[in-house]
Amino acid sequence: MRLLVESGLPLMGGIVGAGGERPKPTRPGDILQVVSEVEEVVPSRSRPARGMARVRSETRNQHGETVQVLLAKLVVPRRAATTSQPQGELANH
């Protein structure tokens, strides 16, 4: 969770919801790697400058085993509309 908050993602309203699981324990000395994927992006109907992004983050150990899965819904800023970009896309940071 700390990595998600401090990663530099452009969070306007913070983390709206988060949940997850820990299928395997971590041990002292483990080398951890986090892989995140944006699963869904939805523009806000009531606030045009914002949107909601659903992000899945998997933490893996040095053996490639998944030790944590985090599913988070984030409030993020939307990009300004341009002629080459459809309206409603969220900022990619």
Task: Summarize it.
This protein is mainly beta and 93 residues long. It has one helix and four strands. The mean pLDDT is 80.
Shape: elongated
Tell me the radius of gyration: 16 Å
Give the ordered list of helices and strands. HEEEE
CATH architecture: Roll
Assess the beta-strand content as a share of residues: over 45%
- Domain unit count: 1
Structural class: mainly beta
Could you report the average pLDDT, rounded to the nearest whole number? 80
Separate helix tally: 1
- Kindly identify the CATH topology: Thiol Ester Dehydrase, Chain A
Q: Strand order across the biggest sheet?
A: 1-4-3-2
CATH superfamily: Hotdog Thioesterase
Residues in helix, %: under 10%
Distance between the termini: 18 Å
Low-confidence stretches: none
CATH top level label: Alpha Beta
In terms of topology, how is this protein built?
Layout: H1 2-6, E1 14-21, E2 33-43, E3 50-60, E4 66-77
Describe this structure in words.
By secondary structure, the protein is mostly beta strands. The chain has a single domain (2-77), classed as Roll (Thiol Ester Dehydrase, Chain A). Helix content is 5%, strand content 45%. The protein has 1 helix and 4 strands. It has one helix at 2-6, and strands at 14-21, 33-43, 50-60, 66-77. The chain has a 4-stranded antiparallel sheet with strand order 1-4-3-2, with no helix packed on it. The relative contact order is 0.29. The model has no long low-confidence stretch (mean pLDDT 80).
Which descriptors would you attach to this protein?
Thiol Ester Dehydrase, Chain A; mainly beta; 1 helix; 5% helix; 4 strands; elongated; 93 residues
